[in-house]
Amino acid sequence: MNQDYEKLQMYLDKQAALGAALTLLEWDNETLAPEKAMDNTARCVGILSEELYRCLVNEEVPGLLKKLGQAEDLTEIQAAVVRVLSKELAKIERISAKEQREFSELLSKSGMMWQKAKAEDDFALFAPYLEQVVAAIRKHNRYQLEGDNGDGTGSLYDVSLNEYEEGFGRKELDTFFAELKETIVPLLGRIQSSQKKMDTDFMHRKYDVEKQKQFNRWLAEYLGFDFSKGVMGESEHPFTTNLHNRDVRITTHYYEDNLISGIFSTIHETGHALYEMNVPDELTLTPVGGGASCGMHESQSRMLENMIGRSREFWEPVFGKLQETFPEQLCDVDLEQFVQAVNCVVPDLIRTESDELTYCLHIMVRYEAEKKLIEEEYPVSELPKLWNELYQEYLGVTPDSDKDGVLQDVHWSGGMFGYFPSYALGNAFAAQLYNKMKQEMDVPQLLRSGQIGQIINWLKEHVHCYGAAKPAGEILKLATGEEFCPAYYVQYLKEKYTKLYELN
Amino acid sequence: MNQDYEKLQMYLDKQAALGAALTLLEWDNETLAPEKAMDNTARCVGILSEELYRCLVNEEVPGLLKKLGQAEDLTEIQAAVVRVLSKELAKIERISAKEQREFSELLSKSGMMWQKAKAEDDFALFAPYLEQVVAAIRKHNRYQLEGDNGDGTGSLYDVSLNEYEEGFGRKELDTFFAELKETIVPLLGRIQSSQKKMDTDFMHRKYDVEKQKQFNRWLAEYLGFDFSKGVMGESEHPFTTNLHNRDVRITTHYYEDNLISGIFSTIHETGHALYEMNVPDELTLTPVGGGASCGMHESQSRMLENMIGRSREFWEPVFGKLQETFPEQLCDVDLEQFVQAVNCVVPDLIRTESDELTYCLHIMVRYEAEKKLIEEEYPVSELPKLWNELYQEYLGVTPDSDKDGVLQDVHWSGGMFGYFPSYALGNAFAAQLYNKMKQEMDVPQLLRSGQIGQIINWLKEHVHCYGAAKPAGEILKLATGEEFCPAYYVQYLKEKYTKLYELN
Lengths: 504, 504
Fold this sequence. Notes:
Two copies of one chain form a homodimer.
Chain A: H1 3-31, H2 38-54, H3 61-70, H4 76-92, H5 97-120, H6 123-146, H7 156-164, H8 170-193, H9 209-223, E1 230-234, E2 240-244, E3 247-252, H10 259-277, H11 294-308, H12 312-315, H13 319-325, H14 335-341, H15 356-376, H16 383-395, H17 420-440, H18 443-448, H19 452-462, H20 472-480, H21 487-500
Parallel strand pairs in A: 1-3
Antiparallel strand pairs in A: 2-3
Helix pairs in contact in A: 1-2, 1-3, 3-4, 5-6, 6-7, 8-15, 8-21, 9-10, 10-11, 11-17, 15-16, 15-17, 17-21
């Protein structure tokens, strides 16, 4: 083995172990830890996070990575590890330890103030913190533009965007979103003026939570979730996390008065989970042992949730089981009604509760706002006004309060700028992959006959198997034979909703 | 602050954080982690354990501890930290990193082989590993005898014993156990030939596990377990663990056909938990942030389980709640019958299922066996024979199989020699403390009126408040005004069982 890589290995091992421990601490915090544990546990998390940071930023690793970047005797995986770590290092190495600590503290305060501001519906409480977070992100991004490979010029927001999705800066996203907007907005108009109305009342009858749990557990297993390598829990906001490929954890949230919220959370998170479970053993617990990118991860959860999970074919062999679980509540509902209800389009204010069609419009609002904040030093105090105007323009609705408007998402309080677009890209990646998959096998027939394993297997062979050892764009090209092409998603939406709402 | 201590602080922080992470990983492994996670997670645990080891054994800390051992400007807590760490270091510093790694691997294999041997009831599978473990312990103990403060002579088993309970070597324990044996064995004989028979059949009716859970949760809270600072779960073998004083976790195991197994596990573990919850904030997450010793910890769990939890007074205000939970199963059982049943003496083979009176006899068997193994190089192959003879001598029963005999406990496979006696010492510490407490307040009356909080508070003020900042012996003396005195325990047993079995 390359001797420099051997030296690096010690840091990689430590990084993997600390990463797994921090993942578990976070999972536990969301699902089980007692209320008053927070302060003491946060102290431990802070110390371990600093240790994790020092696995990369120290006296030895930057030099090793530089040398290894030139090495020619690395395996493919080793080269990928060096590439990923070098990128990560470039992102943080100019941020001093002091700045890093101050930033962590700022994020911690800003997170708490966001919660308070949301609870009290008072944007002014959050605004000064958001201003500081934006300023810090701009400063960090400027470091990168001034770094080894830069000349100090370039777009500050592109730095944020590339952090989450390599190769997708403003140029690519402006084009992508323009195309989406051109399709969705008129389509939405036609749907809203159509005569077709869907009955969704039955979804809000009383559904026993214990029975929901049983059904959702069964459903996750049906989709391929392997309970010998995973755990299913509950938390306020559903999420997926993993210690490694043999310990993958999802959560769902159940509501007694909402049957499908839990179901589609389970399907969505199972999509993420299958990705992580299928990462090969030789990649797990390495820096390339997770999904390739946020967008690629979302492509897996959204394909399962929307393209597959909201299709008639999927429910053909499954709906009976659901009826069996809730015989009283669903005795007067048939498959057709059910499928229509889970695809009902209602433009609304809250992203996480949005339907499939209008989802990307929510993202576009955030994208436009982020561009202004990071690129143009747009005043934070004006943000609620901008937000409401954009919602009116894109979705035709205006929030009554900031709580249901600009304060709804946690991301900005945590410094996550540039993340939202990956949700939309995920949809488009998914459509492109799904299109290819359908050319290679009879997907509707597989779904109808309950053979979903073959579909997951296709994803495993074409996406999951690479972990993050290749960039998302390359995986997409290897899987579909094409560069990223948003037309598949546009086409998918048009076809689906034209048919569903009988718009012809 | 002392400058050397300031330097030490960095290592202490890291040690605390790694310790908390490892605790959570272990808890999770016992309660939730998926079956196939083990290998990958064990790799991470191994790496983190090595990091933890290096917080103490490195180029800086041994020197700092040496200097700090002489320093006169330390606070009481700082001095206690230095004392505890110096003792820990002395234990491991002569073991080379290579030996340490080999020992960990040996323990891991020996643990697996013990499980297999127990499952297959085949001691020969385990014997070669046990031999190696004994040899390693003897070697490590010899290092300590040869260390800075030693001349190479002394008892190898005393080293093991002092590791778990400072100041309690063979001399002290031989005296203690002789006194106990002198009391218990004849007492047991009188009980066995008495006419008094207790009806325990009702405990094995069918008790719904969900209802047991509800009752046990209520019971833990009644005893003072604060669910805002703790978690209650389930595992194969009940245990208590904690990340710090505000995150204390207990488990219980429920059996549908055994009502009291879960109940007394809950009471026992709650005793441990209250100790950890009551450790002051300034001690938690330091090396003196836990209980003072194994024996002192057991004193808290055993006082709550046996002296309090099996008393008539305790059940007076509680039995009604239990009857309310299981009206059908307990309709023909009254308080008197219930209290008698939970105190029924039946000499049997399995330590963890033993009654209060014969419990220490199980410990004495292990103590005699350990003495021979560690001190006298007694051949491991002879161990089953020795075990069975000792059981016959002490308890009057002989195991049919090694599974129910020498293979029943996990401790030796994990290298824990010298641990068992602390279970017995815990009983004696408890009796001495309980005696003092009763002089200061009307304990039976407090129990009858459900005011158990005042009892726990006494323990908090006299035991819990010190954490491990003082040795157990010193805490005992501060609390009771006396040195350790086993007579209280002997007296307690005599009185209790004479009355219960009407032996006068």
